[in-house]
Design a protein that fits this description.
The complex is a heterodimer of chains A (about 300) and B (about 575).
Chain A: H1 5-32, H2 43-95, H3 105-125, E1 146-148, E2 155-157, E3 165-167, E4 173-175, H4 180-185, H5 199-211, H6 217-270, H7 274-300
Helix pairs in contact in A: 1-7, 2-3, 2-6, 3-5, 5-6
Chain B: H1 2-27, E1 37-43, E2 47-49, E3 52-54, E4 58-65, H2 69-100, H3 106-122, H4 127-190, H5 195-211, E5 214-218, E6 224-228, E7 232-236, E8 239-240, E9 243-247, E10 255-261, E11 264-267, H6 276-311, E12 332-333, H7 343-346, E13 348-349, H8 351-355, E14 366-370, E15 379-385, E16 394-398, E17 403-405, E18 410-415, E19 420-424, E20 428-429, E21 437-442, E22 445-450, E23 458-463, H9 472-479, H10 493-533, H11 537-569
Classes of the chains: A mainly alpha (about 300), B alpha+beta (about 575).
Chain lengths: ~300, ~575
């Protein structure tokens, strides 16, 4: 085949340019560590990477939500623990009244002690969290949940029956609060029948009965049974919180595992295989050098040099 | 006797023309479009005599270019396709690279926004969480605008290049018309082909094919006609039709092409222009670019619509719900003046919400209650708020017949069996005979029903007044991230965006593959054309020697002729 001189130069130059392009691309890949420099390099992988990145982001959000839920539930658990301890102390103190004569000095000392303890129990029920929100008032975190009604002389609940919940996984929307209504007002006895009075009124009734002239072991036994019901109520709530913490733990392990899987998948989709890229770089380099040498040699051949 | 001289001189002349042509070839070795030329010679008219036919030297027939009309035609076609693909690939690469940056795309902005919404769901009373949601909403809106702006500037670039291409086409057709005329003049005078002019015209037609695909036909007088589109004339002989680039009558943001007639212009459909830069720009602008821009606008519209719909179903931190003064039912605003397809350019966050993030309706408008004295476990939980809804308080009691009474309005109920019932007021059965009540819709709110109700138990629904720690509606907003709200419930916001990225990537990749194939094909065709028509300097060097020697030999023959003549004269 006949070859024209300009063809010789053009095709030599074209080869050099192509090889330089490949070399540059490989160099870009090596310096960025990315297999795909633009979506067109592997559109399907680019699509998958966007989806995985989204899933990873959503999962990271669940991890954040889990931490928030964990801290909320932990502090809820500890507050419920304090409330339970306080009620147990109240029960112990009330038990002291056993066998004491009605109207005695000892009983009035016990009832004074109990009054103090009731006051701190109410304070605990009106606990605020670190952001100044009342913990036990349902959705109405700005409302102080437990107050003594001056008219009826009974404790009333001013919050609502809402439970704040946090989405901790795609399928689990976990309650991270307990409302005062469930905890303090809706006490049920051992048979599951509503007691019809709040934890605080129960304690107040105990105090009243210990201080009354008609105090006897029978009324004390009734009061103690009611306090037991209240303690049970709190223990049940604490157990439920504990169960949620357990669930949360396994959800967290799962989410961390997912996060790792996402990272691995992203790396597979996007990251460069350095061994392959470096050897490719070396190959293009050798090729380019060879092309430069042969281009020089071929183009120097001319009959005119000999004339 | 003079035959000696005549033959010698014809040889000298032939060798001299050979040398001149070789020099011309060497001089034009790098001239684009040049076809190497060669002198065509034949034997002169022989003198027939009884001694035999005596040759009379050499005769120059013509100077001919080594040229194949077939190869040139192929090259024109391939050139037009090649430039089209090159231009398309360059434009698509720009778009592809624009979408390549993972941190500058829509995905991270969507992700951050929904993460911030989740935070509000977890901490609805926390003002900084709401502020962060509003500012990431602003980031999202400006990301939409940024991407749309980039698409728009690609469109403007295409418009500018279309105008330039049209100007280039006019300049080339003008020159072709001119050369047509020169060729007629040159060829009619001596009846010999005007080689260099023909090469120039071929070259110009090739250049024209870089701008737009054209076809040609030959006329008897040596001129060519040039057509484009569906047969519209650009050049007929020496007559040239001009094109103009002008805003399209159907869309002033787009540059179109029209034919200039004496008394006005006639617009051409974009799809008539195929091949070359013009064809590529039209198909890129009207295809991939427009598609991506439209899709981006659709995502913007869908995001705004979905978030606003959910916002309207909630209660803000001030305790207001839809329909009340001070409640904002829009988080995102796409102005009514926005042209369809331009939502991404026009989307913005409601300025009132920006000013006061308390207006984000994070809470559910209603909450449910159970009386403390209930002996049963029957409970209502808000499942879904629909529009329109009412927050009017409702008190329901379980009667002796296991029916919920106390609600006078319209209700619908669904039972465990799947059967549903509806009514207005009266008793709502807790069991329809084959299953327990599972869902109850009253006042536009659907509740799930759980537990067992005892006679005398009361349940209530009330407005969520003071419910500042309720983030249920924000959680629903955040859930929109993973919901397939787009394209008939087949795609999420993110996957729709991912589709733009992938589609652009796929088209770019396809175009690159086609471009590589076309480049190889074009190299082959160009190689075949160059193989025939291109100048090889070694060959010309050899020709120089050949013609030099021929010249020397003819001169020598002439010399001998003269010597013979003198010898004759010296006979005395």
């Amino acid at each position: 085949m006949r070859i024209s001189t300009s063809m010789q130069f053009a095709s030599g130059t074209r080869n050099l340019l192509n090889q330089q392009y490949e070399l540059q691309r490989t160099q870009d890949q090596l310096s960025s560590g990315r297999r795909m420099l633009s979506p067109s390099d592997d559109p399907i992988a680019a699509l998958n990477a966007l989806e995985v990145r989204q899933a990873k982001g959503v999962n990271e959000q669940y991890l954040t939500n889990q931490s928030t839920a964990l801290s909320a539930l932990s502090s809820l658990e500890s507050t419920l623990g304090s409330l339970g301890d306080q009620l147990i102390n109240i029960r112990v103190a009330a038990t002291e009244a056993q066998g004491k004569p009605a109207g005695s000095q000892q009983l009035s000392a016990i009832s004074e002690d109990l009054r103090q303890r009731l006051s701190s129990l109410v304070d605990l029920a009106n606990t605020k969290d670190s952001q100044g929100n009342y913990v036990f008032s349902g959705f109405q975190s700005g409302v102080k949940p437990i107050a003594l009604d001056a008219v009826s002389g009974q404790y009333t609940y001013l919050g609502d029956q809402g439970k704040v919940s946090i989405q901790v996984s795609p399928s689990i929307n976990m309650a991270v609060s307990e409302n005062g209504d469930d905890l303090f007002m809706r006490v049920t006895d051992a048979q599951g029948q509503p007691l019809g009075k709040s934890v605080f009124d129960t304690v107040q009734d105990t105090i009243d009965s210990i201080g009354s002239a008609t105090f006897n072991s029978a009324t004390l036994a009734t009061n103690l049974a009611e306090i037991d019901a209240a303690i049970n109520q709190l223990i049940n709530a604490r157990t439920s919180v504990g169960a949620r913490l357990n669930t949360l733990e396994s959800v967290q392990i799962n989410a961390k595992d997912m996060d790792y899987q996402h990272s691995v998948r992203l790396s597979e989709l996007e990251d460069l295989d350095y061994t392959e890229a470096i050897s490719r770089f070396a190959r293009y380099q050798t090729q380019l050098e060879a092309s430069q040498i042969t281009f020089k040699q071929v183009t120097q051949l001319s009959l005119f040099n000999l004339l | 006797m003079t035959t000696y001289l005549n033959i010698g001189i014809s040889g000298l002349r032939a060798a001299q023309l050979g040398l001149l042509t070789t020099q011309h070839n060497i001089a034009n070795a790098n001239t684009p479009g040049f076809s190497r030329q060669a002198v065509f010679q034949s034997t002169g008219f022989a003198v027939n005599s009884d001694e035999g036919a005596l040759g009379q030297g050499v005769k120059i027939e013509t100077v001919k270019r080594n040229y194949s009309e077939f190869l040139t035609g192929q090259m024109n076609q391939s050139q037009s396709r090649l430039t089209e693909l090159e231009t398309q690939y360059a434009s698509l690469s720009q778009m592809d690279n624009l979408l390549a940056d993972q941190e500058a795309g829509l995905s991270p902005a969507l992700r951050d926004f929904f993460a911030a919404v989740q935070q509000v769901g977890s901490n609805p009373s926390l003002i900084p969480a709401r502020q962060s949601m509003v500012s990431s909403a602003q980031t999202l809106a400006s990301r939409f605008q940024l991407l749309d702006g980039r698409f728009q500037s690609l469109g403007e670039q295409a418009n500018g290049r279309i105008s330039n291409a049209v100007a280039g086409i006019n300049a080339l057709t003008e020159s072709i018309g001119q050369i047509n005329q020169n060729i007629v003049l040159a060829q009619s005078t001596y009846g010999q082909p005007a080689n260099d002019l023909l090469d120039q015209r071929d070259y110009l037609v090739n250049e024209l094919n870089k701008l737009v695909g054209v076809s040609t036909s030959n006329n008897l007088d040596g001129t060519v006609n040039v057509f484009f589109g569906s047969g519209q004339q650009l050049v007929v002989g020496t007559q040239v039709t001009s094109l103009v680039a002008q805003e399209k009558s159907s869309d002033s943001t787009k540059m179109g092409v029209a034919i200039q007639y004496r008394n006005g212009t006639v617009e051409l459909a974009d799809n008539l222009l195929s091949g070359g830069e013009l064809g590529a720009l039209m198909s890129f602008r009207n295809g991939t670019l427009e598609g991506a821009r439209t899709a981006l606008g659709e995502i913007a519209t869908a995001v705004a619509q979905a978030l606003n719909d959910q916002q309207a179903l909630g209660m803000d931190l001030n305790g207001r719900v839809a329909g009340e003064v001070g409640f904002e039912s829009q988080l995102f605003i796409i102005p009514a003046s926005s042209v369809p397809g331009f939502a991404a350019r026009d989307i913005q966050v409601n300025p009132l919400v920006v000013e006061d993030p308390r207006l984000v309706a994070a809470a559910s408008p209603v909450r449910t209650t159970q009386a403390t004295t209930n002996t049963g476990t029957l409970k209502l939980t808000v499942a879904e708020v629909t529009t329109p809804f009412s927050t009017a308080a409702v008190s329901l009691s379980v009667n002796g017949a296991q029916q919920l009474t106390g609600f006078a309005g319209n209700w619908t109920a669904t039972y465990a069996s799947g059967a549903s019932a509806s009514g207005a007021g009266g008793g709502i059965p807790l069991n329809n005979g084959s299953g327990a009540l599972r869902e109850l819709t009253i006042n536009g709110v659907r509740y799930t029903v759980t537990g067992v109700g005892n006679s005398g138990d009361t349940l209530g629904v009330e407005r969520n007044t003071g419910g500042v720690q309720d983030g249920r509606n924000a959680v629903l907003m955040a859930g929109l991230q993973n919901q397939k709200t787009m394209y008939g419930g087949t795609a999420t916001f993110n996957s729709s965006y991912a589709t733009i990225v992938a589609d652009t990537g796929i088209v770019t990749r396809e175009t690159k593959i086609r471009l590589d194939a076309q480049s190889a094909l074009h190299d082959q065709i160009e190689g075949a054309r160059d193989s025939l028509s291109g100048v090889n300097l070694d060959e010309e060097a050899a020709n120089l020697l050949k013609f030099q020697q021929a010249y020397q030999a003819s001169a020598k023959a002439l010399q001998i002729g003269v010597d013979l003549f003198e010898q004759l004269l010296s006979i005395r």
